[in-house]
Design goal:
The protein has seven helices and eight strands; from the N terminus they run E-H-E-E-E-E-H-E-H-E-H-H-E-H-H. By secondary structure, it is of the alpha+beta class.
Amino acid sequence: MYIPRANSETRTPVIHKLIEEQPFASLITMGTAGLFASHIPMVLERDSTPLGRLKCHLSRANQQWREFSPDLEALAIFSGPQHYITPTWYPEKQESGEVVPTWNYVVVHAYGHLRVIEDSQWLMAHLHSLTTIHEADSPVPWKIEDAPTDYIASQVKGIVGLEMIIDRLEGKWKVSQNRSEQDRAGVAEGLAELNTTESLAMKSLVEERR
């Protein structure tokens, strides 16, 4: 990924936080038929490995798990807040007119080699982690035990697990760092006036990186 120095994020805890906040990833592999992508939630484990471990699962009907090349790195992409930035928010527009639109965004690329796991105990532990994380904010969290045991067993037979020990991480925080302090303030003000979930998330990032 092309990352200008101003946009580079190398702090592992910051990158991990983005992965945990935006766990729905694009998993991209190279296989016998070429590039293949699946869009799936992942669980990050901050274990004894230097950069962490990603766990996920695929339907057995998804050919990606059968066809990827294990000797080649896989890529998991996690996308954070993003927003269009109009040049009308820049005070520089009034001074010189030398401004153009852009797009602000935050993204993480995680690289590593995938391992296929078909062990039912591993799969059940993974599913428990996944549901515990994403049911945490529910007033009445759903638990795997709420479903019939034989039904869950049949569902588990229809999936395979994937695990990636992360070999390298790339973080790109493109949040107006290349603009002047006045222009960054104008961007933050413009985003605040839009007052949407997306614009306010980007406003916070622009202000954090001043």
